[in-house]
Design brief:
Length: about 375
């Protein structure tokens, strides 16, 4: 009989694509999800995109009884359940800590009672803070946070002693964490708690640090979701994408299909146990370039990005993935090009409606002194 897999948070964006990937490779899938209104809407109905073969257990990962029930007959677990959003985490501190930290603790206690063959936890690139940098002479350098004084004068880049801007370099897994938000802190806690408990109780555990995922099924009306979905929500409402700083900050955008495949490989590769892997594209892209590409993909090139010159507390300047370890151990190679991924995203967006809550979310951050 095929292995039975539990995905916490599996009715969401990444989890539902992972369910598809596992089903297509002969696994049976159960999902535990609370169908949070911020992601799934007020009716909290089973998403149409969730395959009929997926067994949906509606429940809270913080509820020990719901977690124990969901674990019955399960061979391996993907822990994806999280509250997601850097900015929101800085004022909904108790909520993020409850869902991400306590929820993981509840799952770990259930797994101590009933161990599984493998646990894969979704971690995040946010725990790196700033990525690695390189000087003009080629020396690798780690940096601290930019000072508020520097940000207020609109000097966005990190510089060497001579005032020359440092260049971003690929960030490997052994870079020390620099936790700049409550969200980042909670994701680091999830990762460490899973690896620590797995080691202590003989549960082979893998942590995957996802970079900026994009693709169909993102929650377009959630203003704290991925940046591509935020841009798409603005564009669908004939509003220009709003970009903080100068738009030249760089990120690593990776297709959700590549993430789903990496998740399956983390389950299947024996050598992955006990390890941490970056899952990204390995290619840096500026946020301004991405906004323009999304607009072009959906035929709204005329809506040029609005560069605000503002900054958010906890934001980083540059970070993109070194994926050498995932290539070597998991056999992971990104397959979806940005061009193909955006074309598919645009095709999916044609049938979607989005409530643009971006201005409301920005106003909330500004009122709290978190966006200046």
């Amino acid at each position: 009989m095929s292995q039975h897999i539990l995905i916490t948070g599996g009715a969401g964006f990444i989890g539902s694509h992972l369910a598809d990937e596992l089903l297509s490779h002969g696994y049976r899938v159960r999902v535990l999800d609370n169908l949070a209104p911020q992601v799934h809407g007020q009716d909290r109905a089973r998403p149409d995109y969730l395959e009929p073969e997926v067994e949906l257990a509606t429940g809270d990962v913080c509820d020990p009884q719901a977690v124990r029930s969901a674990l019955r007959g399960i061979d391996a677990v993907y822990h994806l359940a999280s509250a997601v959003g850097v900015g929101q985490s800085m004022y909904e501190v108790a909520h993020y800590t409850r869902v991400n930290n306590l929820g993981t603790a509840v799952l770990m206690e259930a797994l101590i009672e009933r161990p599984v063959k493998r646990l894969v936890v979704a971690s995040s690139m946010s725990l790196y803070g700033e990525g690695l940098y390189r000087t003009a002479s080629g020396e690798l350098r780690m940096v601290n946070e930019r000072s508020l004084e520097q940000l207020r004068r609109g000097d966005w880049e990190f510089r060497d002693e001579d005032g020359i801007a440092l260049q971003p370099a690929p960030t490997p897994e052994d870079k020390a964490p620099a936790l700049a938000s409550v969200y980042a802190l909670s994701k680091f806690d999830q990762e460490r708690m899973c690896l620590m408990t797995g080691r202590a109780y003989g549960i082979p555990t893998v942590a995957l640090r996802f970079f900026n995922a994009y693709g169909p099924r993102q929650a377009l009306s959630n203003p704290y979701t991925g940046v591509l979905a935020i841009f798409a929500a603005r564009l669908l409402n004939d509003s220009p994408p709003r970009i903080f700083e100068d738009g030249h900050q760089q990120r690593d955008f990776v297709s959700v299909y590549d993430i789903a495949r990496a998740c399956r490989l983390a389950l299947e590769m024996p050598a992955a146990a006990g390890e941490v892997f970056n899952i990204g594209s390995g290619e840096p892209r500026s946020v301004r370039d991405i906004a323009q590409r999304v607009a072009a993909a959906i035929g709204k090139e005329q809506l040029m990005p609005e560069i605000t010159g503002k900054y958010r507390v906890g934001d980083i300047r540059h970070c993109y993935a070194d994926i050498a370890r995932a290539r070597q151990v998991l056999g992971y190679t990104p397959r979806v090009t940005l061009e193909d991924g955006l074309a598919e995203l645009a095709a999916w967006l044609e049938g979607q409606a989005a409530v643009d809550r971006v201005a409301q979310a920005s106003a909330e951050l500004t009122a709290r002194g978190l966006a200046i």
